[in-house]
Amino acid sequence: MFAVQQNDSSTPARTGLLSTAHGHIETPVFMPVGSLGTVKGIDPDELQACGYGLILGNAYHLYLRPGHSLIAGQGGLHKFMQWPGAILTDSGGFQMVSLADLCRITEDGVGFKSHLDGSWHQLTPEFCMEIQVALGSDIMMMLDHCPPYPSTEFQAQEAVERTTRWAKRCLAVPRQEHQFLFGIIQGGVYPHLRQEAAAQLLELGFDGYALGGLSLGEEKETMFRVIQDVTAQLPLDRPRYLMGVGLPEDIVEGVCRGVDMFDCVIPTRHGRTGWLFTSSGRVLIKKAQYARDEAPIDSACECPVCRRYSRAYLRHLFVSNEMLGIRLNTLHNLWYYGTLMAKIRRAIRNGQLQEFRTQFYQAREGHEQGLEQDPMCA
Amino acid sequence: MFAVQQNDSSTPARTGLLSTAHGHIETPVFMPVGSLGTVKGIDPDELQACGYGLILGNAYHLYLRPGHSLIAGQGGLHKFMQWPGAILTDSGGFQMVSLADLCRITEDGVGFKSHLDGSWHQLTPEFCMEIQVALGSDIMMMLDHCPPYPSTEFQAQEAVERTTRWAKRCLAVPRQEHQFLFGIIQGGVYPHLRQEAAAQLLELGFDGYALGGLSLGEEKETMFRVIQDVTAQLPLDRPRYLMGVGLPEDIVEGVCRGVDMFDCVIPTRHGRTGWLFTSSGRVLIKKAQYARDEAPIDSACECPVCRRYSRAYLRHLFVSNEMLGIRLNTLHNLWYYGTLMAKIRRAIRNGQLQEFRTQFYQAREGHEQGLEQDPMCA
């Protein structure tokens, strides 16, 4: 399923090839989030044009709406949403905790009140697998117990132990032949718990290993330390997936610590809120300074938005709440992330990752000021 | 500017060619509405793929946001929105009356409170021309006095007389060399007032003539009678434009009464509210009956949406408030309207307009039931 292609000489970074029934994906890879069977506002052709071959779906969302059985009856999620590439489905454990009106975790599984209509649902590890089998995703995620941040050592330990017990139950569920299953390593910010969690899941054996419970509010340095420690413990021949991360700089740092896969709502959600990524930092398009700016978002960007539209037009669309603005912003950000990953892979292949990393930060120097108001990236 | 190409033998319908600085447009033509410098959610390539070469902008909206001077500074509306085709700008007289919080019409012009921030504005006929000159549209509309429906004969007469006086003032304003100016015929549902209005504008001489003040709540038969009477009075060598109309059946009937140009928010707004047009009538996509429907919106449709997506997926997107659903619905409806116009033109050219009209209605028989809840087309 996964083959490392090139190891970086100075860091644990590597390039690899992830082979699925819906295409081969070069890693390190970023996966756009399409929780409800659509990457918000963007169609499959546009996703492919941005360089994506693997996107995310979400078992929690699709179970609630339109229902996994309905999607199975339509030939599975790929066909339903007409996505020719590969799909990784998150189990939705995180969404049950963060989105549901009420959530109760027991040994059996997660009980929660739907954020849509208040109805009560119970998702066991087995049912969570069943949903993802019905969806037919290429990579399934086990149901994990993701404790909030901050958590006490005791809470974190409890979550690790429960996650391991759930991991066994998930592994016992039959999957479609093409489906891989990833384990999720919890343990909060406690090194020995992360180590314990990884060791237990490694013993069970998964197709890939994910780092869960990060980017929840802990210090960046803490997150990077956890990533570094955990990936060092993981087998070289299995993909490592850092869940829910992150900003471009987080991805660069994650890659340099041996991560192969990333997903995050940032490029899409930031597009909707008018934050645009460029090689020299972020642009908040609603600012008055762009009202008459004839330049593209990023002169160095070759995306369909930058090739055609001015900042002035994009600002007008955004302040007028025009849907096309949100769509174009999102498309630009997805292109930025797709291009960033391609550059990272090229740098690793050429043995120039450190040069890339230095240039990446140099290009942003002095540009990221005054962006403290960014609600998502403070 | 306009040349009739083929006259229908049994009705006043005709095909023609409208020649602008931004392309030649075959008539009868439907113009999608892009009030704020964007057809909501749809990009220029998609508009062209649907067969459109002429779209609408709105002086009222663009004056308020982002401002006509700003757009002029950006090289005009075409460049600002990156639309390679032609643009007709409405003067916004109708929007001032229908959208503004408060509106006071005097001989000088229209005073109104912005629907955006309550600020007070005064648009004279001259200023309205100035805005459209700054926008650089290919076809400008005079500022008219559009009385509400119903209006008394006295009110309608007053509006006609004022419109004629404003017409003179509009004609006196210098335009860019490529800009055409259309007069707007008012007169409500009163035949002698419509006749008087048309005669007065014809004497002044415009590049084209629009029928304003229709589709405001009057009976369909009344509207068709007015259209028929007025077009019979208009010169054969000038385009006739029926403003703000309408449903597919209204367009078919308008063409059969000699109308060359139409505009309406229906395909776009209906797309956003989940009403989809098909050859056999309208589909309300949110209905439960489509939850597992693997068929496209319209099996006979060759649009990018029908070629790819099922009703089940579109229903899921719509009930989940997903932006892609609104975008795809809108794209389908715009394709439907574009294709409808192409079929109408072909029928006229082939001398088969009556056959087309008969088939058009036959295909919908029995299908338009149960759609009484459509808030826009009751």
Q: Largest sheet of chain A at a glance?
A: 8 strands, parallel
CATH level 1 name of the largest domain in chain A: Alpha Beta
The most extensive interface between chains reads: A-B, 36 and 36 residues
C-alpha geometry of chain A? globular
> What's the structural domain tally of chain A?
2
If helices are DSSP runs of H or I spanning 4 or more residues, what is the number of helices of chain A? 14
What's the structural blueprint in terms of helices and strands?
The structure is a homodimer of 378-residue chains.
Chain A: E1 2-7, E2 14-20, E3 23-27, E4 29-32, H1 44-49, E5 54-58, H2 59-64, H3 68-73, H4 77-81, E6 86-90, H5 93-98, E7 102-105, E8 110-113, E9 120-123, H6 125-135, E10 139-141, H7 153-171, E11 180-185, H8 191-204, E12 208-211, H9 220-233, E13 240-242, H10 248-256, E14 261-264, H11 266-272, E15 275-278, E16 281-284, H12 311-319, H13 323-349, H14 353-364
Parallel strand pairs in A: 4-14, 5-6, 6-10, 10-11, 11-12, 12-13, 13-14
Antiparallel strand pairs in A: 1-2, 2-3, 7-8, 8-9, 15-16
Helix pairs in contact in A: 6-7, 7-8, 8-9, 11-13, 12-13, 13-14
